[in-house]
Amino acid sequence: MKNKIGLTVILSFLFLFETQAQPKNALDKWQKGIVKDEFIYDKATFPSCHSASIAETTAGNLVYTFFGGTRERNPDVEIYICRYENGAWTPPTSVADGVLEDGSRLPTWNPVLYQVPNGDLLLFYKIGPKPSEWWGMLKRSTDDGKTWSAAEKLPEGYLGPVKNKPVLLSNGNLICPTSTEGDGWNIHFEITPDFGKTWRKVGPIATGEDNLQGIQPSVLDHGNGTLQILARSRNWALVESWSYDNGETWTPLHKTTLPNNNSGTDAVTMDNGMHVLVYNHVLPGPENPKGPRTPLNVAISTDGKKWHAVLILEDSPISQYSYPAVIQTKDGLLHFAYTWRRQKMKHVVVNPKKLKKRVIKDGVWPTVKGYELPTLETYKAEEE
């Protein structure tokens, strides 16, 4: 018996030694600070899903939303909600669909959550056959997303936040970053001083000398009335614009040094003034003007101009990891929500105090010894 115990101890020691001697997963070097990485659900009644938004309620609970159905643009696509309760996510529950008064049906799109301070939880979403013809809808919840009001159609010509969350400004205005895709791509803002009861528009932002085409902006708040947007573009780069009067006027769109593969992004200003950006840091290829929606990266900045690489949330050559959302909760943690291969929805929690910064020079993601960045050739090999 003693010999068996001794042998077990030796084998356990050798196993532990061998395990510790193994080189760590190279991606670990880009995932410091991650405290939770999970799927929102294991199984669902729909095969395809997309476009995440996440919010922390006044009570401190998390609510997650996305659209799901047969596939994007299919009339059966509905808006789903999951709530974090008792240490787990509730199953996806449909809270909005595109059934019209005459019984016909259209797809729903791009839900966006916003928690009014000590007030309603707002759910913005779109209904329409395609982005150039959709219209804005709004629902409200008074119980952390358990039940929802009847749908309100926004005033004619208003869409609400088109993909990314609204931002409450120091002057009390809620600014909704939005855009249109009809007669070219254009970014504008829809502002409400009373959380969706009355509205007015600002913009569209001038496209500049290069006629930059941007949609789906995120708003960063630099304080003292200075705002910045970062947006998806058709010009192989993230585009930006600045306002110095709380969003009433904006500079023409300008290219940043960060690449964009014509895919959605999101950003947030943390309580300490640091700005966080989540996006696919990859240039489109000559054969694919959109480029693969992988890897999914996170960068931070103190001024919105010089960015540091801090995280790679996903780096598989199997696309796609896309349409992310990011918020900071009251405990200081960052929460990322995004589409996982159009099959499931992901949630990643990060402690920003644990992040390691590496400067992004000339738009090139920094290299780290032992980790090889995916290349376009890698994606092509995987697709073939």
TrEMBL record:
Residues 1-21 form the signal peptide. Pfam families: BNR_2. It comes from the Bacteria. Keywords: Signal. Transmembrane segments: none annotated. Gene3D superfamilies: 2.120.10.10. Residues 60-335 form the Sialidase domain. The keyword Signal applies. This is Exo-alpha-sialidase.
